[in-house]
Amino acid sequence: MSEPPGADLQRIAAFRERFDAVEQQVHRMIVGHRAVLRKVLAAFFAGGHVLLEGVPGLGKTLIVRSVSAALGLSFKRIQFTPDLMPSDIIGAQILTETEAGRQFQFRAGPIFAHIVLADEINRASPKTQSAVLEAMEERQVTAFGETYPLLEPFFVLATQNPIELEGTYPLPEAQLDRFLFKLLVEQPNADELNQILDRTTTEHRPGVETVFAGDAGREAIVDMSRLVRQVVIAPPMQQFIVGLIGAATPNGTGSIAAVRNYVRFGPSPRAAQAVVLGAKVNALLDGRAHVSLEDITDVVLPALRHRLILNFQAEADNVTADSLVVEVMRSLRKP
Predict the structure, then answer these.
(1) Rounded distance, CA 333 to CA 254, Å?
(2) Sign of the four-CA dihedral 238, 241, 243, 246
(3) Main-chain phi, psi angles of 65, to 5 degrees
(4) CA angle, 142 as apex, 137 and 143 as ends, to 5°?
């Protein structure tokens, strides 16, 4: 028997209340970055992963720690360095003494947590970067011929330095596509910097309270994620997203001239999924059970900017993926 409309409204109201509570707790530690934090939480409840890009010292790691504390989930941090090996992430076979004699036992690595911070992921070699691919997509890892399921919920939040910095390895296209959103962390303005100094250079240090505690909290998180997928998207809105992906693909239907000139590879179907899921979270935060055009346009940039693979001509002409996405959006006929 289906739920009456009133029950749906109650679940939407509860979603907004809990989402806002997590935001408020995290902002006790984080100054500014409100749009970034909202997208991070949206990706979490949509079941995706997030890539944060910004120079060191802007609070990317603190955002992740604060989010995990507010959600009440287990947290592990992996510092990616050039000498990091895949076994340092997944785990290794350890020779141990047992009653039956010496045996190899699998010792799980830091990937076995609800929230995993892949810190400075582009400091490690491509071989090590690829170690998290199966985990992000399949929610499991394979080691020494055995498959081990990961915890649920499972959320990877990776940080990377701008690729212009020395000692970085650009992430492969296949791994970039695994991230629901790519978010840019900007420098704080003068007022925000003053608040940061007030919070970090005195004896008083604010803390984060857990919003989702225990098994009941985990069940609430699962219910919120399930509610996201129950939001309705009308056919014209979905067709708008299909047209968006086609316009951003060099050989796609309706592709614009700038895309054909500057893009080597366009966004995959995962990009369309990211836009739909992000828009559904936006609808819930606005108290609706259906997606609007504003919900879609709000998430297009973070969902597509890392999925447009540009050619050398784009680099020579100082054309960015962000500028191309904006141009594609302007060319589309609104439903």
Answers:
(1) 11
(2) negative
(3) -60, -45
(4) 145
Structure confidence at residue 7 (pLDDT): 47
Residue 168 reports pLDDT greater than 70:
no
3-class SS at 114? coil
Per DSSP, which regions of 214-312 are E strands? 263-265, 309-310
Backbone angles phi, psi at 131, to 5 degrees: -65, -25
Given a cut of 70, whether residue 166 has pLDDT beyond it is no
Are 335 and 239 in contact by the 8 Å Cβ rule? The answer is yes
**φ, ψ for residue 40 (rounded to 5)?**
-60, -50
Question: Cβ contacts of residue 287 below 8 Å, gap of 6+?
Answer: 12, 13, 16
Give the DSSP H or E segment for 235.
helix 235-247
Other residues' Cβ atoms within 10 Å of the Cβ of residue 36? 23
Q: In what order do the strands lie in the sheet with 155-160?
A: 75-79, 115-119, 155-160, 50-53, 181-184
Q: What pLDDT is attached to residue 33? A: 79
| DSSP state letter for 311 | -
- 50: which strand partners? 157, 181
- Determine contact, residues 51/176, Cβ cutoff 8 Å: yes
Report how far apart, in Å, the C-alpha atoms of 317 and of each of 23, 248, 320, 323 are. 39, 18, 9, 12
pTM greater than the 0.85 cutoff: yes
What gap in Å lies between CA 229 and CA 16, rounded to an integer? 15
Q: Please give the radius of gyration of the chain, using alpha carbons only, rounded to the nearest integer.
A: 21
Nearest alpha-carbon partner for 255 in 200, 322, 264, 16: 264
With cut-offs at 50, 70 and 90, classify the pLDDT of residue 53.
confident
Q: What CA–CA distance (Å, rounded) separates 333 from 335?
A: 7
What phi, psi does 21 have (nearest 5°)? -65, -40
Q: Work out the widest C-alpha separation in the chain, in whole angstroms.
A: 71
Select from 120, 205, 227, 236 the least CA-distant residue to 169: 120
